[in-house]
Design goal:
By secondary structure, the protein is α+β, with helices and mostly antiparallel strands. It contains four helices and ten strands. It has two domains: 28 residues, no CATH class; 159 residues, Beta Barrel (Porin), CATH 2.40.160.40.
Length: 261
């Protein structure tokens, strides 16, 4: 009985040893799961970049010098000005005078003074600096010497000098002598209207209306001038003039040659 008990115990011990030994062997054969690895891309299969390559900016054509012959530049004031600095064209059109200074010499006919003939000399619109203020002066006389008028005036143009229409007050001095009819001198006050259908005095119409304030009586002077350029610096003009007091009146018709300064 004792031997049977020992045999059973030995069998149980051997069985347990075999069980735990097999479990340990099975545990040792199980490998732990592999950790995921980041995919690698070979240089040959590398994806193209989505970034666009930098494009070098080409120099502006406006910065490139013009390939012009020196003779062409010397003969063109416009090119010389544009090469120095790009002008403000709109400002130039608005403020550059549409009329020029004129030196006038002409023949005059005096119907009211026994239809005598004479002459007139004048300078019109001498600009004072870059301002709209100008100075004008004139002298007229018949060849008989009994009809004379002269004076000087200031004009201040109230509209931009490049306008087709302009106005200016007249402030100055005038003397007028007509035989035994009247002799008046004094302040000359009035207004000037100018219409310029073609710029730079190529053609214009000027109307002056003024009054000479004398010591004893006044004199009204109306002057109308039509001018047209025949060359870039030479013009022909016709002027009509009426001057009158309360009792007397005189008239003048002139044909003039004008040099644009």
């Amino acid at each position: 009985m004792k031997d049977q008990t020992l045999g059973c115990a030995a069998g149980i011990v051997l069985g347990c040893g075999c069980f735990f030994g097999g479990a340990a062997q099975a545990q040792s054969t199980i490998e732990p799961p592999a950790e995921p690895t980041a995919p690698t891309t070979s240089p040959a299969t590398e994806l193209p970049s989505t970034e666009s390559p930098a494009v070098e900016s080409e120099p502006s054509s406006s910065d490139e010098p013009l390939n012009l012959a020196p003779e062409t530049v010397e003969q063109s004031p416009v090119l010389q000005r544009w090469l120095e600095e790009i002008p403000d064209v709109r400002s130039d059109i608005r403020n550059d005078p549409s009329f020029r200074t004129k030196l006038q010499v002409g023949y005059s006919f005096f119907p009211s003074s026994d239809s005598t003939s004479g002459f007139v000399v004048s300078v019109d619109d001498v600009f004072i600096g870059d301002t709209p203020l100008t100075v004008s002066a004139d002298y007229q006389q018949n060849f008989r010497g009994d009809r004379t008028a002269y004076g000087a005036d200031l004009h201040y143009y109230v509209l931009p000098l490049g306008s087709y229409v302009n106005l200016s007050p007249i402030v100055g001095y005038r003397h007028a002598d007509s035989a035994d009819d009247y002799s008046i001198d004094g302040a000359n006050l009035g207004v000037r209207f100018r219409f310029v259908p073609s710029r730079t005095s190529a053609a214009d119409v000027t109307v002056d209306q003024s009054w000479v304030v004398g010591d004893r009586e006044g004199l009204s002077v109306t002057h109308l001038n039509f001018g047209y350029a025949v060359t870039s610096n030479l013009r022909l003009s016709t002027d009509l003039e009426w001057q009158s007091t309360a009792d007397e009146g005189d008239s003048r018709v002139g044909v003039n040659l004008e040099w644009l300064l």
